[in-house]
Design a protein that fits this description.
The structure is a homodimer. The first copy, chain A, has 13 helices and 13 strands. By secondary structure, the first copy, chain A, is an alpha/beta fold. Chain A folds into 2 domains: 140 residues, Alpha-Beta Complex (Aspartate Aminotransferase, domain 1); 248 residues, Type I PLP-dependent aspartate aminotransferase-like (Major domain) (Aspartate Aminotransferase, domain 2, 3-Layer(aba) Sandwich), CATH 3.40.640. An 8-stranded mixed sheet of chain A has the order 2-9-8-7-6-3-4-5, sandwiched between helices. A 3-stranded antiparallel sheet of chain A has the order 10-11-13, with helices on one face. Chain A has a two-stranded parallel ribbon with strand order 1-12. The mean pLDDT of chain A is 96.
């Protein structure tokens, strides 16, 4: 097939040209860009001298109100679809809340060697690092175009001989696939029989309002579903404003049943007196309520849409109908997930690096950094400009062709 | 002794009068007062839109710089008398940093049942709650007018048959005695032989700049002393601005040897991506350097001095030469420690409560809330006004007399 051969040669030539003039580009992490932060800059001046009390009269400069400002709890309750009493406000990081919850469960409740967490893959690398750090075993669960492999989840969770204690879920616009759980998947997670009576769903709603369209994708209410199924304590909810206001400068929240909130309250009062209420107050004044957050996120979407479109355009231009890669077309979130042919992801990463494009290391989306098929790559389009993205995706596309050749 | 009897009767009468008209007063927690916070209000507007980069050029609205802003590390290094590389910036709470350190040590290093921490008493209740929560045993060590009981510390730390792993120390203006360690005590802690090769001093420098006088009491440099004694990794340092800028709205820091900093860096990157750099930047702009912090603390002292004087005046008026109580005369910090006759502290607390004055529960300054002699009471003068304090101390004085009668 001389045509195939000439296509391969053309790709190699193109690649060498790109390597000769490498433009350093970074597609590794899901960082917002400066234009997104500019949308929140008013937040920096909405709590000035003499404006330090919330509506309940709390002087936010002093100790106290460990559960978080009532208004902030109400705002997160709306976003997470929980009651205000079902929400506790944290510091600046939902990952830290997850760490603290897992750490306390591991220390006081799940003390056997290597209790197992189910990990939909590809998934969020920091969930896996955290789990390994705290001594959890991990079992991969496939998440693909058809959604979660619910059958495997049910089988693993129900296995009396094993120690499966929970599952990580990013329910809306999952990292990195962008997949949003369908109703029947939420129901199945809520209803399924589990061998562990204290099985927990770690519901990391990191992209709850991060739509590229006007409205976030519909998502069933896990808490109601769990309660209706007789498992009110099964779900632990997490969210933050890191990709809404300022990254690492926002507000995180934990939510769950009354029993879980009371448990968390007792845990965390030992660790700290309260969160930063001044920053809570800033967020409350700036956003007012969930509708304010959603309006704000439509302005984010206007910035991000062209970037996600550039990724799709670029991938289609380089790879459409080649059979060399498949990728997701997310309607929200922070990533595009791309699968090369089996055995090529690491090599593609290395090739892209030679041409200046830094990708999240192949395997990072799997527990212990090991993608059994060496296929998955995560693309983070939010931080670079459209022009940079176009260049980077072109490099990636050519790297995939060269790797296959 | 009819004179004694009539004095007792007079005290009882006075007490009943106070009870008849109770004014609710709270001396329980070391909370700054609003006037102190007012001194920091400029901090609320020193990072506005377009002012979000530090001197190193970091956009403080985005992820990154997990160790903390270089300028903030340098500022804390000056305050804690460490090198800037020896400091990591945390969130808003030094207690949280202590929790994370102890929790990690307990999980990964000190795994035997109930490793022991030495606890100078009276001491800070939250140190003890945290230790108990993480499964540490605690041994009381006396701290009195003559300082730390170094002999007991050395004996306990050197005991091969036990599992003594560390000691809690609030080195300057200790909570609640106000005691500052003398050079020879710092040297002894640095030099002493310990059975545990990884013995740790938890150096909670909570009141490092909190003098009631113009300059803080001299304090030897523990880190240098430990290094000189061949134990560079023995000391772990903690500090925060909670009682400098805003309580629970400030910046905390961890410090130690290169090895300890690297260990902590590896631990905490699993838990969170970074601290709130915008709040770091506010503090950096507002204080500039350690000299700025010290000047600021002289303004705090001007507010607090009359309050501490009112406590001394009141206690002397009610209790001088009665032999019913002894109390400390701190030159900084947030508390006065008062000892009643043995067996009276709980009763005094209950009596004071009847007259409207809420005291920290008797025993709170000891592990497990148990003061073996039932003597110690902690007085927190910072939050109430001078008038409220005068009234509250009068109630306390009378309650002590009535209890003794």
């Amino acid at each position: 097939m001389p045509e195939v051969e000439s296509r391969k040669a053309a790709a190699r030539q193109k690649f060498e040209k790109l390597c000769a003039d490498p433009l350093p580009l970074d597609l590794t992490r899901g960082k917002p860009c400066a234009a997104q932060f500019d949308l929140s800059d008013e937040l920096l001046r909405c709590v000035g001298p003499g404006e330090v009390r919330d509506e309940a009269g709390n002087d936010c400069r002093n100790y106290g109100v460990p559960d978080g400002l009532p208004g902030m709890r109400a705002l997160f309750a709306e976003l997470l679809e929980l009651s205000a009493e079902g929400v506790l406000i944290g510091g600046n990081s939902s990952l830290a809340l997850m760490f603290d919850v897992l750490s306390a469960l591991r220390r006081d409740v799940w003390r056997e060697p290597a209790p197992v967490l189910l990990c939909p893959v590809p998934g969020y690398d920091r969930h896996f690092t955290l789990s390994a750090h705290l001594g959890f075993g991990m079992q991969n669960i496939a998440i693909g175009a058809n959604g979660l492999d619910i059958e495997s989840i049910e089988r693993a969770a129900a296995d009396d001989a094993r120690r499966v204690k929970g599952i990580w879920i990013v329910p809306r616009y999952q990292n990195p696939t962008g997949y949003t759980l369908r109703d029947e998947e939420v129901q199945a997670l809520a209803r399924m029989k589990t061998a562990a009576p204290d099985f927990r769903i770690f519901w990391d709603n990191a992209y709850m309002v991060h739509a590229l369209e006007d409205e976030p994708a519909p998502l069933a209410n896990l808490q109601s579903a769990c309660a209706a199924a007789g498992h009110p304590d099964r779900a632990l909810h997490f969210g933050s404003t890191s990709k809404i206001s300022f990254a690492g400068g926002g507000i995180a929240a934990f939510g769950g049943s009354a029993a879980n909130v009371e448990w968390m309250r007792r845990q965390r009062i030992v660790r700290t007196i309260n969160g930063d209420k001044l920053n809570q107050l800033r967020h409350l004044r700036f956003f007012r309520n969930a509708a304010g957050v959603r309006a704000h996120m439509r302005r984010h979407a206007a910035i991000l849409r062209p970037k996600f479109e550039a990724v799709q355009r670029g991938l289609e231009a380089e790879l459409k109908d080649t059979g060399l890669a498949e990728w997701t077309k997310p309607k929200g979130g922070y990533f595009v997930s791309l699968d090369t042919c089996a055995g090529h992801a690491q090599q593609v990463c290395a090739l892209a690096a030679r041409a200046g494009v830094k990708l999240t290391p192949a395997g990072a989306t799997f527990p212990h950094g090991k993608d059994p098929q060496d296929r998955n790559l995560r693309i983070a389009p939010t931080f670079p400009s459209v022009e940079e993205l176009e260049r980077a995706i072109a490099v990636l596309g050519v790297a995939i062709q060269v790797s296959a050749a």
